[in-house]
Amino acid sequence: MNESELQMLEPKEQVGLVVVITGHGKGKTTSALGTIVRAVGHGLRVCLVQFMKGDMYAGEIDGLKKLAPYVEHHLIGKGFVGLKGDPVPPAEHRAHAQEAIKLAEEKMLSGEFDILICDEINNALKLKLVDLPQVLDLIQNKPALMHLVLTGRDAHPKVIQRAHTVSIVQEMKHAYRERIAPQKGIDY
Predict the structure, then answer these.
(1) For the segment 76-85, what is each residue's pLDDT rounded down to a tens digit?
(2) How large is the angle between the packed helices 132-140 and 90-109, nearest 10 degrees?
(3) What is the 3-class SS of 47-105, one letter each residue?
(4) Each residue of 170-181: pLDDT tens digit?
(5) Distances in Å between the alpha carbon of 52 and those of 42, 93, 96?
(6) Which end of the chain is more exposed for a tag (fewer CB within 10 A), N or C?
(7) Does 69 sit behind a cis peptide bond, omega within 30 degrees of 0 on the bond before it?
(8) Which pLDDT tens digit goes with each residue over 9-36?
(9) Residues 182/176, Cβ–Cβ less than 8 Å
């Protein structure tokens, strides 16, 4: 069977979903990036706002550029709070996260995108870089047909409650625990 013979599915009713990808395993952002590839295949436009990543290079930075004009990518964060002797003051982390949530809201309401992905927003909420009412407002004010994907560890119960789909990524084993350094294309 070749690609032209594949059956195309069409939902009877279009619904903009809220998807939460959380848990302590590796693969939350990777899952969201997979959603981007799938969406671009359907000709959908995606905006990715990264709330905490932004201090280290990752392959998706250049990979997403290759998906233009369907994908808009914003690195707003200053890295993970408190890790590896984090030199960034908490107030600066919060300021960047506040910038990210304002940008996410602006992009969400612009009418330009079919999917908005807020990467690591759950972490930002847990660390009090953004506030619960801000995240709940994002969910509440989402256009009816837009999909909203919220990633990161420790998703708040009220965020989970409002989601249509929730996936928990659980670590069973990780190369890092065997002292294997992060690998290009897999870990970053």
Answers:
(1) 988 778 666 7
(2) 10
(3) EEEECCCCCCCCHHHHHHHCCCCCEEEEECCCCCCCCCCCCCCHHHHHHHHHHHHHHHH
(4) 999 988 888 999
(5) 28, 8, 8
(6) N
(7) yes
(8) 888 999 999 999 999 999 999 999 999 9
(9) yes
